[in-house]
Amino acid sequence: MNMNDSLEEAIEVLQQLGLKEYEARCFVGLSRLHTGTAKRLSEMAEVPRTRVYDAIRVLEAQGLVEIQHSSPQQFRAVPLDEATETLRDQYEGRVERLHDALDTVEMVEQDDETPVQQVWAMSGQDAIKNRTDQLIEDASEEVVLVIGDESLLTEDLVSSLNDVGNGVDLLIGALTESLQDQIKTAVPDATTFISGLEWLQGEDATENETAIGRLLLIDRSTILVSSLMPDTKDEQAIFGEGFGNGLVVIARRLMAQGLLTVRDPK
Amino acid sequence: MNMNDSLEEAIEVLQQLGLKEYEARCFVGLSRLHTGTAKRLSEMAEVPRTRVYDAIRVLEAQGLVEIQHSSPQQFRAVPLDEATETLRDQYEGRVERLHDALDTVEMVEQDDETPVQQVWAMSGQDAIKNRTDQLIEDASEEVVLVIGDESLLTEDLVSSLNDVGNGVDLLIGALTESLQDQIKTAVPDATTFISGLEWLQGEDATENETAIGRLLLIDRSTILVSSLMPDTKDEQAIFGEGFGNGLVVIARRLMAQGLLTVRDPK
DNA sequence: TTGAATAGTCACCCGTTTAATCACAAAAAG
DNA sequence: CTTTTTGTGATTAAACGGGTGACTATTCAA
Questions:
Q1: CATH for B118-259, among 3.30.70.360, 3.90.1150.10, 3.30.870.10, 3.40.50.150?
Q2: Residue in chain B nearest A120 by alpha carbon
Q3: Please, which residues have CB within 8 angstroms of residue A125's CB and are 6 or more apart in sequence?
Q4: Distance between alpha carbon A185 and the CA centroid of its chain, in Å?
Q5: B70 touching chain A per CB within 8 A
Q6: Considering the entire predicted model, what is its pTM?
Q7: What is the tens place of the pLDDT at every residue in B68-98?
């Protein structure tokens, strides 16, 4: 990646982390300046000089820059490692506060008429990863997992797989041999296999550009299927639980197609 | 804390984490509803019904809620642990990307005329903590530290103190006996003492409400002094390096006042 | 000392975002 | 066949953020 792109990337990420554009620009500007006045910073970061002062004040309050109160004032960025650590601390604190606040509250009564046909949709690689890990942890009998992309075989996933109870069968499939090898060494207890769902790929590929992401079946009663946008890495999943669930139809189809039969000749 | 306050707190924190007000309200609303339609959620969360849909879409894209595409649609929040973990992952990723981006860039040349009189100001408890830890790690001869408030004795600080090189003297002071005891057990290698800066407290207390936070002197050439707003827990520090520094005057005053003489009779 | 340049603070403008409401068509429910 | 409910879209008003210029104080160099 080009250096100017790195600068742009840094600015963008800082904004995602909650900074305004000027604040972000000033911070990356200072990061390559070691120390500077408002004027120099204004030129380097392409921020109107008169606005540098506001931006710096905010950054200082967040612990990202230091100010020398001389005349003229000098600014400098906190060392990178310190800055990232500070940001981490900030967010860790917020997430913790959120967790505490919500977990003293949860749940108002409900007039439950569970409509049995529960199929839920969710998005986001992180969220689906976490749900996958959680489901595997809670498995009591059998885990069937098909992984469609190398990037989905994360550390957390591996440790979840290795931590399942003793009586739980592990059946893991991959789309390529190299991926299967990785799985074999990472999760020795699992029975692995390749393919078994070419039909699924074929059927899908005609319609749109989505690739199969994950396919997870827990205790034959809970299922999660995700697809992966090849370019954007965006992941979307559907998720269902309960035997009577409509999604189990998919599971049956899979079994009929011979995917699950791999298990018996084991 | 009251439960309604918890709700408010959660909403506020979610906004700090980047959500809009409606999104935040909808999420905490769903968090206590287990599952709900737009109408119920609208009443519970005090969000206009017609706007619930937009908010939910954003939340779904972030992996914080699941949608059941039935009619009417049903929404539900991801379990709290999964949600916080997802948020964590999100921010960890961003901070990492920031670090990588800035790492490849740093430093444009500089016409250095170091004005020797460097006194820098910084704010924020996290940032000052990180700076403190860093300075202690880099110490080569002597660390003099005075801690003004119990909350400042963090794990990171303790491990930094215990990790200093062999030839480095550790001199740690506290304002109260109980704090001194904590330090003794946490950092056995240190020489501890109490007080030695009543004069500083006195002088300050007349003017404003700030209490002394940290006081750190590294190798007799780098110094950091912080004050703590008693109510807001807001911390502000000044920081200087180099022998010729004006701040060293303060260090001399401290020595003259007998603070540092504790070291000699050791 | 004086004039020019620099430093710093304010106040203002304008486009975008976002909270908030309304109008309307499709779909359920009675 | 009404009457709610549900979902989408357009619209308004206020808040926010980016962008610019006026103005004063300070510094520096004639």
A1: 3.30.870.10
A2: B68
A3: A233, A234, A235
A4: 24
A5: yes
A6: 0.86
A7: 988 889 999 999 999 999 999 999 999 999 9
